[in-house]
Design goal:
Helices cover 44% and strands 15% of the residues. It is of the alpha/beta class. The radius of gyration is 17 Å and the shape is globular. The two termini are 20 Å apart. It binds 2-phosphoglycolic acid.
Length: 260
């Protein structure tokens, strides 16, 4: 089986869009340096708002020398077209130009608050891969869907919308399972709940290609904190975390990395 290096991604959401974003990145880089984690412990990704992307990318670049871990920048969203008359939108080539390597696609806040659909998520996944931007595609059920016993059905539908596209370059993309009821609520899925869904996603991928299943990192997201990260990250099919609230402070983000 391909060795999957854990991926720990911090989704800053609509916080730290300026100077404080650079300060946070500096603190994280400093913490990573002093933790001196061996190569292969984890790949680290930070996803600031658009306004801070280029500055945070430059900050990380300056602080990178000697660090054994990969640290890269992600956007939180983008427009699938490369350019055009789309006021207020940002494209994949623009993100690459700003120093981004990754983009989060289909976060539940985008799906719920901005009407993103499975078809739109698939379109963006294709556009990101075509442009050379690594997608972290998010899936997850609502509380109502979980209580209605529909979790696996919903997640399978969401994954099915884009999974085959990841065959274009296996291992480049990642999937984040984020139960909507656990995001920002302090209500975390237990390791068994996370593992159950992750295993289902893995077997869905195996139905497409064994290589896709073993080469795709499956992240868990939803109230991941330093004190619950170890249990989640120890699950066989959990290959990392997409962290919201706890990524906004260097100490808690680094605490999650130390839990590895
Ligand atoms: P949370 O957010 O860690 O604050 O729950 C996770 C996410 O939305 O990606």
């Amino acid at each position: 089986m391909t060795k999957r290096v854990p991926l720990i991604a911090g989704n800053w959401k609509m916080f730290h869009g300026g100077r404080t974003g650079c300060d946070l990145a500096i603190d994280i880089m400093r913490g990573l340096r002093s933790a001196d984690l061996p190569a292969g412990t984890a790949d680290v990704v930070m996803a600031p708002p658009f306004t801070a992307l280029a500055a945070v990318a430059a900050t990380v670049e300056e602080a990178r020398a000697g660090l054994k871990l990969s640290v890269e920048i992600s956007a939180q969203n983008f427009h699938a077209k490369a350019e055009g008359a789309f006021t207020g939108e940002v494209s994949a080539p623009m993100l690459l130009d700003a120093g981004c390597k990754w983009v989060i696609i289909g976060h539940s806040e985008r799906r719920q608050l901005f009407g993103e659909t499975d078809a739109g998520v698939a379109e963006k996944t294709k556009a990101a891969l075509d442009a050379g931007l690594r997608p972290i595609v998010c899936v997850g059920e609502t509380l109502e869907e979980r209580e209605g016993g529909k979790t696996l059905e919903v997640v399978e539908r969401q994954v099915g919308a884009f999974a085959k596209l990841l065959l274009a370059d296996v291992g480049v993309g990642a999937i984040a399972y984020e139960p909507v009821w656990a995001i920002g609520t302090g209500r975390v899925a237990g390791p068994e709940q996370a593992q159950e869904v992750h295993a289902a996603i893995r077997s869905q991928l195996a139905g497409i290609s064994q290589e896709l299943a073993s080469g795709t990192r499956l992240l868990y997201g939803g109230s991941v904190k330093p004190d619950n990260a170890a249990g989640l990250l120890a699950c066989e099919d959990v290959d990392g975390a997409l962290v919201g609230g706890a990524s906004l402070k260097a100490e808690s983000f680094l605490g999650i990395l130390r839990a590895l």
